[in-house]
Amino acid sequence: MLVSEKNKANQAKKKMVQVTGKKSYARVREELKASKGQDLSRLEMFRACFSKDGTTKNFEASNAIAHIQQLSSNLPESSIDKPGPDDFFF
C-alpha cells in the first residue's frame, strides 16, 4: 500500500505527458525514420512523442515545443541538430 501511495504521488508530479503509450522512443524514432526516409531532428522527435496531430496534452509540453522551435530558429540553416558539448537543447 505504501508503494502505491508513493507511485501516485510521483505520477502527480509529472509535468509533461508523452502520447506514445507503451511504445519506446527508439521504436517511435525508427517508425518515423522509415516513413520519412531520413533521420529526425530532436524537435521532430520531441513533437512526435509529446503531441498528437499538433496538440499537446498539457501546457508544459506546449511551452517546451515552442521554446525549442524558437531556439532552433536561431541556428544557421546548414547546422545539424546533433547533441554536443554546446547543446542548448539539452
Structure commentary:
By secondary structure, the protein is mostly helical. The chain has a domain at 19-73. Helices cover 53% and strands 4% of the residues. The protein has helices at residues 2-13, 25-36, 42-50, 59-73, and strands spanning 51-52, 55-56. It has a two-stranded antiparallel ribbon with strand order 1-2. Strand 1 and strand 2 (55-56) form a beta hairpin. The chain is globular, with a radius of gyration of 16 Å. The chain starts with a helix and ends in a 17-residue tail after the last helix. Residues 1-20 are annotated as: Disordered. InterPro entries: Probable_transposase_24 (IPR004252). This is Putative transposase, Ptta/En/Spm, plant. Pfam families: Transposase_24. It comes from Helianthus annuus (Common sunflower).
